[in-house]
Design a protein that fits this description.
Length: 388
């Protein structure tokens, strides 16, 4: 298979399994609280544990993929995700739930880094913002599906069935990835090595921070949104369905943002404007009863920065530095996503409401525009030095 859009479709579906698995805890958070007798702080820690391995594994993830190869690495990652889900499905001990979550997260880290590298291999210099927007769109699609499906499964069959479902989907991903083929010349490029220059490294670090902070803000919606609505008297299923509106609309707004960025050549302004609007909407959500209206607006606007942000690293990375660069990028992303839910859970416990988690999300999104400006400044300086 040598059609890059068909390859992108495979990567999209396989990456969707990560979002589906990640969201499994938040989708049935009230149910887990009843079963295990834990509160929002513990749920926040369990959510964040999924990204904890990323702090250690993201950086060497590219090297692992370069050593083992694209397909073997993705299969190994999917096997870890499946194994972690099975542990969580078969135990009623909270400590083992955490262990299973860590194993799943380790697989998710390796899979994320490798799939991003594979997608960039195929689209570097070719509609990269559009392709990356479609690629990252697998995340809201997976979350939206999980919010619709998993609460119903949990209510009917229990939390074990929820985690068994995530393991089954990961196993399906193994079959799909067998159809992947690398682009011509990718093996030669991957085999070589190069070091990131200082400004390129700094730019990738800032890009990773932007992606991490923006996702922390977005994660507050589907991680603590169901609990916020449950506090207001919504059922678990109804709360999950309402929050899924954001993710379903993101399926449209994410690729739309990538297309607009490529079409009008203004990704910087698009990302900044959208981020400011999303920050305001997140703050409004925790203070208003117009829940559906706000969720619709977030869904329509919140996906626009995804493609432009994900294409930032590609601007300073060449094939020889792509593996290490994406490892740095995702190390920052996972650090933010590990700490974000845990901090939000602690704050929610102290305040006695999940609303404070949405406020934290608004602040993290608000931090992105200044960092985007900083990234542009670094790239500008780097380009000037390269010409002199």
């Amino acid at each position: 298979m040598r059609n890059r859009w068909a390859i992108l479709a495979i990567l999209f579906v396989v990456r969707l399994t990560i979002a589906f698995q990640f969201q499994s805890v938040a989708a049935v958070a009230p149910l887990l609280g009843e079963i295990f007798g834990v509160g929002l702080a513990d749920i926040g820690i369990l959510i964040g544990l999924y990204f904890t391995p990323g702090v250690v594994l993201a950086l060497p993830g590219g090297a692992i993929g370069r050593t083992l190869g694209d397909k073997p690495t993705t299969i190994a990652a999917l096997l870890l995700m499946t194994a972690g889900s099975l542990v969580m499905a078969t135990t009623d001990i909270w400590g083992l739930q955490m262990a299973g979550r860590l194993v799943s997260g380790a697989g998710g880290v390796l899979l994320t880094v490798q799939l991003t590298k594979m997608g960039t291999d195929w689209f570097a210099g070719k509609e990269i913002a559009t392709a990356m927007a479609i690629f990252v769109n697998s995340w809201p699609a997976g979350v939206a599906i999980s919010l619709l499906v998993l609460p119903a499964i949990g209510t009917a069959y229990g939390a074990g069935a929820v985690f068994a479902a995530t393991g089954a989907l990961s196993a399906i991903g193994i079959a799909l990835i067998m159809f992947y083929q690398p682009p011509p010349g990718a093996t030669v490029s991957a085999a070589s090595s190069a070091r990131l220059d200082r400004l390129a490294l700094l730019a990738v670090i800032v890009a990773g921070l932007i992606w991490g902070l923006y996702n922390v803000g977005f994660a507050m919606i589907f991680s603590f949104g169901p609990s916020l609505l449950a506090e207001r008297g919504w059922s678990i299923a109804a709360a999950g369905s309402a929050i899924s509106v954001v993710m379903w609309l993101s399926v449209v707004s994410v690729p739309a943002g990538g297309y607009l960025a490529d079409r009008f050549k203004r990704p910087f302004m698009l990302a900044i404007t959208s981020s400011l609007v999303v920050a305001a909407l997140l703050a409004w959500l925790s203070r208003s009863d117009a829940v559906i209206t706000i969720l619709v607006l977030i869904g329509l606007i919140g996906g626009h920065p995804a493609g432009p942000i994900m294409s930032l690293a590609a601007r300073v990375l060449v094939p020889e530095t792509r593996a290490i660069g994406m490892g740095v990028f995702y190390t920052l992303f996972y650090a933010a996503m590990m700490l974000g839910p845990a901090v939000a859970g602690r704050l929610a416990k102290s305040a006695g409401t999940a609303a404070v988690a949405l406020d934290l999300g608004a602040l993290t999104v608000l931090a992105c525009p200044p960092l985007m400006w900083l990234f542009e400044r670094i790239v500008s300086v780097r380009n000037r030095r390269a010409k002199s």
